[in-house]
Amino acid sequence: MTKKKKDIDYKTYLQLPALLAAQKPISAAHDEMLFVIVHQTYELWFKQVLFEVARVQKIFARRTLADADLRIVSEALARVDAVLKHLVRQVDLLETMTPLDFLDFRHVFRSASGFQSMQFRALEISLGLRAEDRVSYDGRAYASYLSEEDRKTVSKLEKGETLFEQVDKWLARTPFVSMGKFDFWKAYGRAVAEMLDADRKTAAADKTLSKAARDMALARLDNMQKQFDALFDGKTHKQSAWRLSHEAVKAALFIMLYRDQPVLQAPFKILSALMDIDETMTLWRFRHAQMVQRMLGMKMGSGGSSGHDYLVETTQKNRIFKDFFALSTFMIPRSGLPQLPPDVQKKMGFRYDGGE
Amino acid sequence: MTKKKKDIDYKTYLQLPALLAAQKPISAAHDEMLFVIVHQTYELWFKQVLFEVARVQKIFARRTLADADLRIVSEALARVDAVLKHLVRQVDLLETMTPLDFLDFRHVFRSASGFQSMQFRALEISLGLRAEDRVSYDGRAYASYLSEEDRKTVSKLEKGETLFEQVDKWLARTPFVSMGKFDFWKAYGRAVAEMLDADRKTAAADKTLSKAARDMALARLDNMQKQFDALFDGKTHKQSAWRLSHEAVKAALFIMLYRDQPVLQAPFKILSALMDIDETMTLWRFRHAQMVQRMLGMKMGSGGSSGHDYLVETTQKNRIFKDFFALSTFMIPRSGLPQLPPDVQKKMGFRYDGGE
Amino acid sequence: MTKKKKDIDYKTYLQLPALLAAQKPISAAHDEMLFVIVHQTYELWFKQVLFEVARVQKIFARRTLADADLRIVSEALARVDAVLKHLVRQVDLLETMTPLDFLDFRHVFRSASGFQSMQFRALEISLGLRAEDRVSYDGRAYASYLSEEDRKTVSKLEKGETLFEQVDKWLARTPFVSMGKFDFWKAYGRAVAEMLDADRKTAAADKTLSKAARDMALARLDNMQKQFDALFDGKTHKQSAWRLSHEAVKAALFIMLYRDQPVLQAPFKILSALMDIDETMTLWRFRHAQMVQRMLGMKMGSGGSSGHDYLVETTQKNRIFKDFFALSTFMIPRSGLPQLPPDVQKKMGFRYDGGE
Amino acid sequence: MTKKKKDIDYKTYLQLPALLAAQKPISAAHDEMLFVIVHQTYELWFKQVLFEVARVQKIFARRTLADADLRIVSEALARVDAVLKHLVRQVDLLETMTPLDFLDFRHVFRSASGFQSMQFRALEISLGLRAEDRVSYDGRAYASYLSEEDRKTVSKLEKGETLFEQVDKWLARTPFVSMGKFDFWKAYGRAVAEMLDADRKTAAADKTLSKAARDMALARLDNMQKQFDALFDGKTHKQSAWRLSHEAVKAALFIMLYRDQPVLQAPFKILSALMDIDETMTLWRFRHAQMVQRMLGMKMGSGGSSGHDYLVETTQKNRIFKDFFALSTFMIPRSGLPQLPPDVQKKMGFRYDGGE
Fold first, then answer.
1. Do D70 and B268 touch (CB under 8 A)?
2. Are the Cβ atoms of D109 and C41 closer than 8 angstroms?
3. What domains does chain C contain, in order, with CATH numbers?
4. pTM of whole model > 0.90?
């Protein structure tokens, strides 16, 4: 509004001549245009998503994270999820093409395949997907499908710090899990023990159950106790299935349980957004698997992939923020949660508020 | 599969270097990238939609329309609608930007505006929107916002045959509305008269109604009779509000009422798809109006438009296939429909079938 | 988990025998079942939405609103919006019914109409729709369509405090708009004046413009100054188009401009959610208008309504949180915003943070 | 319109007093209401879906299927799919509840679980899911989770004719696959052989390939030939993985390849709708699996189920119309398809058309 620029028109601003000249179907098959445009819009949106992730990573890379930035982080992540959800729905558009129509131009790309999408790989890596979390395909590393130049780019990305790692460090720094005399881990351990004890007594006294059922209930409670013991034990943590550090697990659980505390509301939003993104990327993989089965039946995917089965497997294995889902296992009902000491609670509030 | 081409990779096939270099935000505002990509994907999808409409128009342009082509027509139109619905949902993505964030770069386009989207104009015109159906904006013709080159293109398009006109002619050729001794218009006129007569008798004899209520009911029936008389009267048709020719109105109503006849199933699909497209384009205008109000409040739109009110008005006036919605007014319950004579019905069936 | 209850099965828990016995189509027309179930699920979701609104209203009714409650308020409002969006999409399901199929059972409800949905009226009123904001229909008050009992209920609701009023009071209490030496209104007035002055100078010096264009630009800036003057002037506020109190307008604008301050992040979420709800209810009205036109053409709606036009009009008039949209008109670019004094900014942060 | 009924109001018509009294949350937890209403609307929509499937089954149960009925069948199936897609999206609403909020009332249903939804079982069975297609859960038959009364109902349903079986028989009756001198199976076998021969020659002559690559390409073609041989061979069909009868496989492939022939357009729509339904039910299972993981982490599902893994497994195994997806494997490009003889093609057209 203040600085005037040279006038520009819509077409020039959006670079439409270049953009609308970039559709080059190879065959004369009508539906190849749809195929091209579906994938081009995917790539444009991947660019947007990477742009948002880069913003978030830049904020997390700062030594200290200003509270004012947390809104930006959670809104950026929410936008990433909104775009990904849009891309999931876009699979429906590709499915307006029938397998027979696909056959009309399937021969044009011999080895070309979505496997070669550099931007999608960059997204996975930036978020934190590790090489070892990937389902291998045809026994080959995913990077072997990329051009040499792209391989260098992903290799560099893989050496950089990922969003997962940044979030892990940020969580591990959360101040309130241990403050003054308050130690969340200990307090929570006691609360869990009390809850399980009470459950054990209830089960043991439950006359409506047969002895076998009672024994099963008690065994289940013992098993839960063991799971919790493992959770609390920092020494065995590294050997466990957790990818998050022990400190980050603790903080994430703390945030989820005490999310209504003013200072935790924004961090809770961020954890929820990361779970949304993980869920939506997984759904994208699944819809993609379904689409491949519909288009190709049991044939090989384009680029030689056995497509459907591979993609279904990735929905279970190629996960990034799975640990946050696992935390639900370790929540106890609100009524049993340890009370926060008043001084801790006060520190979690706003400065303007309270008796200052 | 049979002819082998030179190998090509994903990036080259999709022209990614050109595509992903075409985002040129002018400001340093973070959200300008979203703005660019939202509009670029709109334009890519407009290209797809125009591509489908062109296919349909080419088929309708043939002297005779093969029955085998009707599936292609209705699937292409269904795809147009599916893409447009996707674009309506995409407005949600733009709304992840707040008005304050928009202000950070709103100054970069002085007169640039969606008003200058040549492809959107081409879509409206190809489908059949006439200059006189358009809400005028700032008292200027929409074409005055276009570059000289684009103005020539739309002017040429406006002189060509639109989908609306093609559909009108195609409908007017429908053979079954008058075949042998069967004249749909006359038979339907009799059925309507019978229905209204019966309704009049019922109303007149309804003791539960007050005299005033009875008189109102009778007046309403008289009014319906007049509307139907006007429908049937070919002489006054040209002066009426219908845009469809009289013959086309007749055929469209026939198709809607007897859509289960094998030969009418595909035409019915086509009419339904045209209504879907009209409805979805209207919804697109409305969501766009909402978005403009949210972003700009009561300010002028970018490009100087008063945006919101103009867009709301277009939802009612810039309509193309409105006549097909009006037909619902002239349907009578199935129980009162004239029976088709057996010989007509037989001709509407498949050759393999029946006692031949 | 701790207290054991008598075992219960799925069917009993969900009251399925009663629920699934409550579909009583009157005619033998196949599609009447769809009509019944579409409307029953609408009503079930209205119940849910009312349940969430009641929770929010109960929180706002407290003398002081705990910061811990703001997350609950914004999540409840977000859920309301999510449900309403689901109901908008549900219109698509009703449109799988054709006008001809609707005619098969349209006669069964003579005066019954969605106009009689008590829960929808309760929702409108609880959110804050006033009788005077409503488009009148057939010249009759909406309540005249309700049963006597329902009329009493809505009349009582109309006398109670609505969410709009609660939000207005809550906003008016916002402490930071005037704190110590900082007066947001004055500081903002100065910033606006500076921006407009600079714009005037730029326009006056712009040699690329004709005299006429320059005069128009200057007139536009004068007009903006007048709009802002009216905004700042408490005395004329009551005569203005604003429904929000002057204090609430000020606070809402403050929140929107300084939303990244920790203490304003939750209030900003709440204002955004209210705008989302307003937008989605408006969209619901519009989709409903489209559906009515498709089903009935130009006929009267069921219950005697002229349906379509009435519903389109409600999308512009029956609005509740329109004022928040108007605020976009009064935002200036972030670069021109007054800086918050350090002591004010400090008070808007968390207690744990900073140099304490 | 013609027969007047006693006046009825909206509330009575929709049985709102009963409907809105049927929500009986057990706990005081706020989110239990959402849980109840999500599941009640699921059940209402299941009723609608069963109602549409019953209509379709009644039509298929007739000795001869009128061509006029095919539109009804395909529209009913399309509606089933539209409703199911709505239910998939509805999972998002349940996910507005957090795991911690769920814990507040999870204890109220000890063994109650969606496993006990009689209507969902009825839907699976009516469509054609066989007991042997089901993933077993905890080693128990799904029916063991039902009440005795419900067990009887499903057992009866399982003995009845399912939609899958009806479709199989209907397909097997398709007249055109073998008509006069035309035998689709033989003609197609020849076309496949020609295509594979040409591919073999191309591969053998391809100098750009290494010997190993050439050998692999040839081996792949040999393998395809074997798959096709197995497809054509009626004798081994019963031992194959196909669930469809050999005649039905043949007809379904014929319909998919020659879908533009007027007489095949409606059958093609029906096959496509069945695939849509299969895909959407599978997606429903997957979204349900994701939701369970989010809510429960690695805990047991309500009703004791290990939920997530079980549900993921059902997406691959509990499939009904999978065979139609497998057909894509056996399509060859349109350019290689056998031409239909003119007399067969004529019989597939409409009676009104052509040289009669």
1. no
2. no
3. 26-183+236-347 (1.20.58.480)
4. yes
